[in-house]
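Lay summary. Proteins are chains of building blocks that fold into shapes, and those shapes determine what they do. In this project we predict the shape from the chain. Here is one chain we studied, written as its sequence of building blocks.
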Amino acid sequence: MKQFTSTIKNIAIAVHPSSQEAMRVAWEVHAFLKEQYQIIATLARINDLLFQSQVAEGRFDLMITLGGDGTMLRAGHLCAPVKLPLLGINLGRFGFLMQMTPDDWQKELPRVFSGEYGFEERMMLQAEHWRGDQLISSEQVINEVVVARGRIVRPIRIQTCVDGYPLASYVADGLIASTPTGSTAYALAVGGPIMPPELHNILIVAVAPHLSMDRAIILPEGASVEIYTDTDHEAVLSVDGHSPVDLKNGDHVVVKRSELTVKFLVFQDPGYFYRNLEHYLEQNPSIGGIK
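And here is the predicted shape, written in a compact code that computers can read:
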């Protein structure tokens, strides 16, 4: 058994719900931890309800995820309430949230047990769906909140307020309220700015605005954003890419900083974000640029 100085001893391995390749690599990680450090990790698909309850009970010191950024987001929602750090092995296309690949995890993972790591805590948002004075739902957000048109291909009217004061009105396909982490996701695809993940600001950017303000707005972390829809056809609310929820006319969504944060275990120096970003921008993984 190799000696290690880290206090991380109870490890969860969370695997993409349907990827056989992710499961294969996960078992390799499981065997590596057992053989090298005599750690018997708990391995499960991330949608396993028993596994989720074990995470919620605070049984683990670290969660290693295998999949893409979507798997990492699902893991983040499980881990944030119990402040459990995350470390990802990328088997998806982008891997903005990942530290390791299938080719380098055996080299990088030992750094966990020699104490050669740090933690990066990232801002989360809270999104509340209101119907008049009734709170319909409240969701925690790692990437973004999207208020958008539904299946009918026509823009909707959107009004926004910040801390109770009118900000802007839009005729658009939708509006995104994003964390800095989410600035490299949907917000980037519609022309929003790229924000370093350690910032604590809220990014507002419209989707396909028509004769409306087409500039992104960056708000301070303490701001509260209210989003109102006015339309004669379908409008929806979606959080972190989850299934959309119908909005009735007159409903509004309140977005503000959450009390929770998502915690990533990181090996690299602060410049890693920009090095990875340059790599992705030069070779778009979604069109086969990265093998």
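What the prediction tells us: Confidence is low (pLDDT under 50) at residues 1-5.
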